[in-house]
Amino acid sequence: MLLKIPEYLFWMFFWNTFTDAAKYPVVLWHGMGDTCCFPFSVGSITNLLKTKLNNTYVKSLEIGGNIVTDYESGFFIHPNKQVEYVCQELAKDKKLTGGYNAIGFSQGGQFLRAVAQRCPKPAMKVLISLGGQHQGVFGLPKCPSLKLHTCEYIRRLLNYAAYEEWTQQFSVQATYWHDPFQEDKYEAHSTFLADINNEVFSNGLYADNLKKLDKFVMVKFLNDTIVQPLESQWFQFYKANQDREILPLESSKVYTTILTYMHEK
After folding, report:
1. Where does the signal peptide begin and end (predicted)?
2. How many Å apart are CA 113 and CA 196, to the nearest integer?
3. Per DSSP, which regions of 30-114 are E strands?
């Protein structure tokens, strides 16, 4: 997801949100259809953070070590493999040993949440999710891609075969495709989102590790043209067996298994 945010708004928000903004390094994870370093998107945000935070260390994640693989990762490298790769990269980066703040853009938001839940060292202090799909998506109306036919193919594939084993392994978007008309199938066959949301089985470590965050901030973009439903960006989703009415967060299964701590802190 490519973003254009007015600089003054961006800066005011992050300065007030980060734990010791000028002290801790920042880790960024881009969204679908983007890379770590495009100068017109995440690359410009990297430079802005360095400038405003007194040259603090900013690590914009590049999956696979080159820009081509990094771009392709947004569509074709399973999130579990990406998260494992990122955990290793963060663990061996000596500049992060004292902790870091994190910003995830679009699907990078839920990927960084998986990092927080699965890899608590080095310690993530604050997680800011900008347009992340924390309860998944049921539609990608304007999927960004350098080739338009790629998006159309992905949409058709998800509509008909999202929960087939080969689709789950081939398509990143399939791993967080959440079909409200097939909740049982989603929970049984989602190979990423259902796991990090504790919908497969209750993993106490996921909740405990998420609780270690100083802050978990979820930003919803009201004019988002990619994510359906928009409420997924605030950890909400459709009620079962329909795609119109949104279930209140506190009534959802994921709230009782992983997010209750938000009201306890």
Report:
1. 1-21
2. 8
3. 58-60, 100-105
Q: Classify strands 246-247 and 124-130 as parallel, antiparallel or unpaired.
A: unpaired
Structure tokens at 117: 């839940």
Q: What residues contact 16, with CB distance under 8 A and at least 6 apart?
A: none
Q: What pLDDT is stored for residue 261 in this prediction?
A: 54
Burial status of residue 145 (CB atoms within 10 A of its CB: 0-12, 13-18, 19 or more): middle
Strand 100-105 and strand 246-247: the pairing is unpaired
Q: Which amino acid is at 20?
A: D
Sheet containing 58-60, strands listed edge to edge, beginning at the edge strand earlier in sequence = 58-60, 26-29, 100-105, 124-130, 215-219
Lowest-confidence segment of 1-5, 61-65, 130-134, 213-217 by average pLDDT: 1-5
- Is 110:132 a contact under the CB 8 Å cutoff? yes
Residue-wise pLDDT tens digits, 108-143: 999 999 999 999 999 999 999 999 999 999 987 777
- pLDDT range class, residue 10, cuts 50, 70, 90: low
The overall pTM is greater than 0.85: yes
Q: How many CB atoms lie within 10 A of CB 19?
A: 15
Alpha carbon distance 236, 63 (integer Å): 28
CA neighbor of 192 nearest in space, from 177, 203, 204, 205 = 177
